[in-house]
Input
Amino acid sequence: MAAPYSRLLDLVKVQCRIFSLNFNPERARLGNKILRQRLRGPALAAWYPRKTVSFRDLQDTYSRQGLTMFDEAEDDREEAIQIAKLRGKGRPKKKRTAAESRSAKKKK
Amino acid sequence: MSHFRSKILDLGGFINPRVVRDHTKRKVFEQFEPERQALRYVIHNTSLPQRVRAQAQLQLASMHAYTRSTQIKNRCVAGGVPRSVIRAFRLGRYQFRQQALAGELPGVKKASW
Output
């Protein structure tokens, strides 16, 4: 013997309350399928590897406390500048005023 | 767009302008996804007044292109190549082949039959 429709409806209603579903016997389009969807953003944003701690970060954090590390590239650069200066090939002096820069042009 | 791009580069690994752009799009999409889903819910809900739904449609359409998921393209993590990227390894086919032959991908083995 089939149960009456109203009885089935009550059953579905209780079922929906227990499992926190949306009770919608008219089958109206309430857009609940969008609320059910999971957010894809975090998974998509994790595609490329993020930057991790680098040697330069360590240098930056410890230089504030007065701790310096030996940096070979920086050492080489300063040495090269010293050699260039001795050969008279260093950078020209910075022109501080407009008059200075004008006189420098006139010499040519 | 440049105003979405982070001021300090937060990417490790292979970087070129296209990779940075795609990464920016991914982050923008992540940020605006709840807003987009809320608007989509309003649009799909037939019990709401038609006027509200039309307004939501307009609002969703007027959102920036970078907030759209269709702008995102899977690129090779090791070379930035956008084509034939193997999703499980996030590598382009050539990078995949090279790394697999070098034994850098665990469980990947050259087959022959």
Remarks:
- Chain A touches chain B at residues 28-31, 33-35, 37, 39-42, 44-45, 47-52 (CB under 8 Å).
- The radius of gyration of chain A is 37 Å.
